[in-house]
Amino acid sequence: xxxxxxxxxxxDAKGFGFITPEGGGERVFAHISSYAxxxxxxxxxxxxxxxxxxxxGRPRVGRFQYLGTARxxxxxxxxxxxxxxxxxxxxxxxxxxxxxxxxxxxxxxxYSAVSLVAFVMYWIDKRAATRGAQRTPExxxxxxxxxxxxxxxxxxxxxxxxxxxxxxxxxxxxxAVIVNVGALGWLLIAPETMSLRAQLGFDLTxxxxxxxxx
Length: 214
Fold this sequence. Notes:
Elements: E1 3-11, E2 16-21, E3 28-31, E4 45-53, E5 59-66, H1 68-74, H2 80-99, H3 106-131, H4 138-159, H5 167-189, H6 194-199, H7 209-213
Antiparallel strand pairs: 1-2, 1-4, 2-3, 4-5
Helix pairs in contact: 2-4, 3-4, 4-5
Domain CSD: 2-74
Keywords: Membrane, Phosphoprotein, Transmembrane, Transmembrane helix
Transmembrane segments: 72-93, 105-124, 171-189
């Protein structure tokens, strides 16, 4: 990567843009598959790049990545720390409930295992999107999010910068989070779930319902 320039006119939806050479000259086509950094490229950042020629002999970018501080910042999505804090807080609450015997420890295991599966599914779908391969259906991703995998999905969205800009997807994602957390709260508190709690291994002598009723 012996050339320097600025990534301009980046179209993230289509996965391509152009690099304007540092010393001036004709801009060069750059595709997402040529990006050597983490996450997704962002326009108007300084980059280092190499040049190759396409099948018609025209110059195009072979590989490119950000320069200096932009390279460091590009590896972490803006919402990553907020997502990480939310996931840590959620698991801290789960562990606290388990420690006080309000919740079986198997629930922590279930959330962890399904979150790991969801995280891997996002990684696979991200690679497929980059390579133009067959994608994972959004309904499948949402199903795993709903079934306790949303913490892993939330982290994957930020780490891979995947599905974060599609408003319709984010609406369904957060609805899945609300339904999942709401169902867990209902299971912990509602008197009518007593028999279900017994089947799931809850300690029936420990209930949050009296505490909530105070």
